[in-house]
Predict the structure.
Amino acid sequence: MFPTARPTERQTEDAMNRNLSILQRATAADLQLDPFPHVVIANALPDDLYAELEASFPSPQSMGIDPSRNNHRWNYASRKIRRNSKLPQIWRDFIAYHASEAFYRDIVGLFHEGIHALYPERFSDRDSLESLRVGVRKHDTFAKKDVLMDAMISGNTPVIEASSVRSSHLDSGDKLFSGLFYMRPPTYDAVGGDLTISRYNRELAGRPERHLKFKGAYIEDDNLEVVRTVTYDRNLAVLFINSLDSVHGVTVRQPSPHSRLFVNLVGEIDPPLYELEDSGKPAHYLPADQPRTPIGLTDRIVPMMRRMFG
């Protein structure tokens, strides 16, 4: 199910000199603003680079993942990948890039106008985004950084009973952007598991009442219209800016012995952009001058210990 081939030393050296970004082929024409800023990029990476990543995709066992649960989402974070020398170097390089300041700047270059349109008081221009200090989630903290990046080797385990790993929802308000790099295995034959991009239906569009329809992060599909269904495929990148309009989900997967493999990308900021529904309090945007979340002693010590001891 999972390839075991390892890149040669020459291949590893070549990979270090390559453009590893999944946005390297993105253009302004790829950017869609309806119903929220997003891009969908087919054949995101050159064929030779993608082939190396596909051939050396780490097995769940090498990352300590239990693949036996039904349609269960798992993530292996960049801070763990950084210190796991058993993983192929091409994967360590690839993940490191997508949790870096360089990739953050790729995103700003593509999305800065869309971010400004959503949050004009918080991000007045491109420079206000470029000036943010970038770190790695769970390795750095907001005490010294403004954006915490993560790139995770991820998957959904095989399906015993048909289910959706995540129905229509919003991501949490501390995520400026979210992204997925789909890596459909050659043997994958499951039906479903596609990404839906949705807008509110005609009765709710643009109305404050739409925020009352959420229970936590989730909303029933009868409140929505699907704008686009992105088929789970190989070498396919999806990135989007989060807001209270950025509703997305995963369609039901039918029973299959195969895992759904991908890379999960996030960039967290503080203070959050919005808060989700909680205990009956509707989802709502936060003011641009919202104070930052106090950094507790544990939040300072744990990343420091991780940097010192791995």
Observations:
- The chain is about 20% helix and 25% strand.
- The chain has a mean pLDDT of 89.
- The chain has one domain: 20-57+66-279+298-309.
